[in-house]
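call fold(seq) -> tokens
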Amino acid sequence: MNRNTSRKEQNNRNRKNQRPDGLLWGDHLYYNHYSPNNAPKIRALVNTTKKALSPYFSYLAEAIKAEEKRGQYEVMWEQIKGKVVIELEPKSNKYRIDRPPPNLIIDYPYEELKEEKNRLFNDTNDSHIITFSKEETVQQGNGFKFKYFENSIPNLDDKLELNGQYIKFHVINHTITSSSKFSFNNSDIIIDDLIENESGWDIIVSQKKLGKVIFIDGAEYRIHSYNAKVFERLNDGNKLLDFEKIGNQYHLQELPKEKVLKSENGDEFFWQQRSSQQDFIIQLKDSDDDDSTKPVSDYFFDDGVEEIYQESNRKIKIRIKHKNSEEKTLVLAAPYKEKIQLNKNEPIRIAVNTTVLKRQRDAIKSLNDSPVDAQKNLIKLFESKDHSRWEPFNQRQIESWYVLTDPNYDGTDAQRSFVQKAVSTPEFAILEGPPGSGKTTAIIELILQLAKDGKRILLSASTHVAIDNVLERIGNYDTDNIIEPLRIGDEGRIADAVEHLQIQKKIEKLKESGMQEALAERFVLDSANLVCGTTMGIQQHPQIKNRDNSLPAAPLYDYLIIDESSKTTFQEFIVPALYAKKWILVGDIKQLSPYIEQSHIVHNFNSLVEDDMQYALKLIFHTLTQYGSRNPYIIEVNAKIIQHIDSYLSAWQTKDDNHYKDVVVCSLTRTSQNLKTISSIQPDKNALLLFGSNLILVEKGHYNDFASYLPKTHIFLNQNNIVDPFLFEQSYLHKKRLLPRYNNIGSERVEQNNPYAASQKFKQVFDEKSWAEEIAWRMIRVYERRMLKKKDSYYEKSYDLLKPFAKDNMVDRLYNMTLPSILESIQVGNGEKHKDSTVITEGFDENILKQRHIILDYQHRMHPDISKFSRDEFYTFSENIALLDGNKTQRDWDYNRYTKRAVWIDTPKSESAKRQDRTHFDEANRIIKEIEQFLGYSATHKHPEEKEWTIAVITYYRPQETLLRKKLCEFCSQPNKISRFYKNGVNILLYTVDKFQGMEADMVFISMVRGKSIGFMDNINRLNVALTRAKYQRVIVGDIEFFRKQNNSEELKRLADTSERLS
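ret:
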């Protein structure tokens, strides 16, 4: 038989043996370029890749099923109606004219130039020879000038040599005055104002729209429009207008008095009243009962969500015109010639969108099936460390810097070193830094250096704030105008300041000039050298969204930069990673970890662990552990469950800390079983053992055979027939008070010590959550607590007791595969145990990581009082200390209400208040009082940085956020605001701690809420984020004595003990 035929038949047999939703072996042809003509190595690599990627693929397949099973998300809402509605139109338009480089005019007969290979040489500074063709020049008088001169302009006393002859030259600098002639599309432009600055000129014109190029005195100039509608404040004469911006409309309590309104930037606008019924605007209202860190309303603002409906009328889909995720508002568009009609008492819904998960699954499949040459270093992450080779490289030195220009600024050396590593690496570079250490600044420098080298960059992050922050700042340093940015994502999620960079906005602008949509899209994508979007939103990139999955995913960009990569899982990373040749990871594993949908983990557990095993594990947990009720029980189960329980208890016997060493479990069965731990007994001979047992397992179908032997002291959990003699006798003993006192079941006492009531109560507690649900939420909590110094709490212990014992434990595998970020995995590994260690399982080797990795040590955000606790607790290591205070950070002010810049205002929680431990009215009232005091100060004290003051109020729990929102709406007279309030010239922000990562404020109030238990506040990553947001002042508000006395978090205890206490 032909050898190739044999191999093909073997592959076909292998495919038949695989799960239908699993990965197949990759195509050897695509792997051949990794090791040409080395068939054994290629086969090994194909097998290793499939083995490593299959669990991710299967996890995503089950996650998709979980979402499809869910079907929809729903949330309550209310309509927003302003008393009056206006729209704005700029009074004039403002443009920036780039200053072109000076013209070099060569005094040399134009007709004597060669058609090709003219040579120009600067004899004075011995610069390199410039070779050019006649076509690259333009005749100027008796001489010529270059169409585009890429080199530096020579000094006037330099000697230039052209084609072997010394020549004369002169330089003409570009000047524009108010008397210059401006034209666009062959029409003259009237200039209202002209302002010269270092980079060029600003002009204000009456025309509404100009293109990218205008002519001034016959010469061509590039122009850029300012987005005049980017503002926070509007003044009606001397009065500050209170408005709500929803879509393109502004909702006011009364019409403005003046015809022209002015923003804080000095831009002026005409306004026009619109019908308040023109748009149907709703605000989404999340339930406070939802404990998830991602509220349901967030799904309505995901990229790609375009319509809503109600269950009572599923056929009518209502299109979403505009979204504002900050204020949780949706502007709805009515169906054709119809009014929008929504039932006020019914939630709105969206269909579950599995597109993101499917693209993640397809990306993993593409990497497995058909990896192209540029993806070989992604494959190497899963290759055995013994066989993979990560090449050393020389770090390129950068001579000229755009942002990192001050070598004396603390931390600049480390930032520069990172940039030099990143531009030199053959595959990966990693930047870690604590809060306020300049990670974004380093990213901006890196982007500019890469763009200067002609590279194309894909920038991604887990949040829109991080992306827009880079885009807003990079223009200040792009002195060479080398960045052509493009923003991917829905308009409602993008900051106003960068809205004009959104892909659809750019396409629409080109369509208005007459370009067809397909051509406009292609032009926008091809011309952009910096494409930006969140790890989810980037999937709306047309070339990613519309990719033919039957073809390999070819890289479109030279570099992928992932900011906040500590919040990005491998499966999120892999989608944009396929479209780049090199990968730069930026983040801080001491801050928040990735968000994982618990339902996806539950669905995976249900597919991996058989039902009988799940039942056995849950039964053991609820009957035999300290976290259950520890009462004596009798239950009917099948023989397989008995076997699972025996195997589980036997495995625990091999451990030194056997949790079940004093437990007695008996089985009554007619089936012959080889049990190691469970006592399979004859009831007529072992009555005493039965009586003293913790759990009696009766084989299903054989209850009547053993009923007369069962001890009446035990709670029978399969009570179906009330006339059963067992129950009669037990009821008699109960009435005579001869039964033992039963322990609480759940958190409640057994009513009147009634065994029947105990059975019903146990069933209620037992059925409340499935085993998969019980272990899934604990798994996430255990991961959140992984960095604690003390990890032996209820969470770790109960999680350990719920896990099955197996050589290849699927619970551990799911933990290691789904929860760690790509940043954590690539450094220390994800913890998976494999025969062969890989980068993903164990991280880079120390010497390889060192060449690619930089940690920023200095912070420039916080006053030293504020940074101290996090530095001591989270960033002090045996080998180094991070979060050091930069020497040029100015945080001086004379607000003397507090004795230190980091204080704790003690607000004791009463016993009655502790019954609702996720809200605290006294804290909310005190925070409003403190804000009011600061507003008195800010009225007479300007911000040291010549901008508006910003206060942030953050809390851990959504019910407290709701309470604070209600207080702030009233205090600021802004009834429809959700997150961003404004009063007396001060911005007031309200967020949960999780939502506020990546942001900062001058003053931060942290509402601690708890007074009975600490809940998930023991997560030190979340605590670190909360403590490091303030620049000038941090104020913790909460019951300080409770946090000093609690024993569940050493970090919170030390925070309370070391804080400056105020009453």
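Confidence is low (pLDDT under 50) at residues 1-20.
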